[in-house]
Design goal:
eight-stranded antiparallel β-sheet, alpha+beta
Length: 316
């Protein structure tokens, strides 16, 4: 079985600090750049699962790089270089403490809340009589707080501004960027026979300028449906064919795990891990239209250290 990169502990030239997130390890280089290592860790329900998924980091990093390049005309983004299949180096920005979630369809956690009786989500009113996977007349923005640990919390635009989390001027610009990025993502997905259902964007500021940061349009941050058969399945009330991490969440739920106290993650057998790897590669090829080329390095850490160190030498 191929090796998965689960933990990192690099000491790069100029390194000031490192932040270990749920999936990404972010190295601060000279307080000017960030080297983001996308590990093979996998999280669901805000819990990092006990085993890694080979090639998942490569899949996510390369999808994000492609879409950052494809949307740089809409908003400046943090990416400077991708020196390694699992690493992006970019500008160090001060992150806004919200994640901009945008939804084109009523599905996932929004549907679960709606089904339980909610008719308002993050300050956005929802119509009566909607069905699962129904398209909204216009996409809705349902921001969340950005938690360092534990669960992100839904929050409304008014609460964000009232609490001073983001200024009114900046927040309204984030909304415009979010809508434009989502429209571009939907256009690109449609060309691949897909529907970009929902996604999240993160933004930061550097020298007073707003940048798009982190990943974009990956299966970890986004949900895709296959366009073919969508309408028929919707009308019949059938589950949609998805390209997202929802299949992992569904496997966990089917085995009694939703990240709640006292629940245990089901056993991640080699067969389960291999099947998740295969699904991530399928996601990559369907989303990008490119053939996925596995980097089969024997020593992933040594490869990353070499590639990133060489890149850092070229940065001013």
């Amino acid at each position: 079985m191929s090796k998965a990169l689960v933990n990192t502990d690099f000491k790069f030239k100029g390194q000031k600090s490192v932040y270990h997130g749920k999936v990404r390890d972010v190295y601060n280089i000279n307080d000017k750049y960030m080297a983001m290592v996308v590990t093979d860790r996998i999280s669901a329900f805000d819990v990092v699962l006990p085993k890694g998924i080979p090639f998942k980091g490569q899949v996510l990093n390369q999808i994000a790089a492609k879409f950052l390049d494809a949307t740089s005309d809409i908003v400046p983004n943090w990416k400077v270089a991708t020196p390694d299949p699992m690493v992006t180096i970019g500008h160090k920005c001060e992150a806004f403490r919200v994640e901009m979630v945008i939804r084109g369809y009523l599905t996932g956690s929004a549907w679960r809340e709606y089904k339980a009786g909610a008719r308002e989500l993050c300050g956005v009113k929802l119509a009566e009589g909607m069905k699962e996977n129904q398209k909204f007349e216009t996409p809705i923005i349902t921001p969340t707080t950005k938690a360092d640990e534990g669960h992100d919390q839904n929050i409304s635009k008014d609460e964000i501004i009232a609490q001073g989390i983001v200024s009114k001027e900046d927040y309204e610009q984030l909304e415009k960027y979010t809508q434009a990025l989502f429209a571009r993502g939907q256009e690109m997905a449609a060309k691949m026979g897909l529907i970009l259902v929902d996604t999240k964007y993160e933004f930061g500021k550097k020298d007073g300028k707003i940048y798009l940061i982190d990943e974009i349009h990956t299966p970890d941050s986004s949900r895709y449906f296959y366009a073919e058969g969508y309408q028929e399945r919707f009308e019949k009330g059938e589950a949609q064919r998805q390209l997202s991490k929802e299949f992992v969440r569904q496997w966990l739920m089917d085995n009694g795990f939703q990240g709640k106290d006292g629940q245990t993650v089901p056993e991640m057998t080699p067969e389960i891990i291999s099947s998740i790897t295969e699904r991530y590669i399928e996601l990559y090829e369907n989303i990008t239209g490119d053939k996925f080329v596995k980097d089969e390095s024997e020593d992933i850490e040594a490869r990353i250290e070499k590639n990133v160190s060489a890149c850092i030498e070229t940065l001013a």
